[in-house]
User: What shape does this take?
Amino acid sequence: MKIVKLDDKEWLEKDGYSKKILFTANELKSRGHLVQIVKSEPHTEIKLHYHEQTI
Assistant: This one.
């Protein structure tokens, strides 16, 4: 089991939302996967987008 302190991770500001990456693929030892928290402001929506590479 892995434990992360949320205060140790920084929020990354994106277009219309913010995200906090908790574990990367390397940390998970699982290519192409990550664990993140995503937040947006109330009554907004995140614009359509896609990911060629996350990080």
About this structure: The chain has a mean pLDDT of 89.
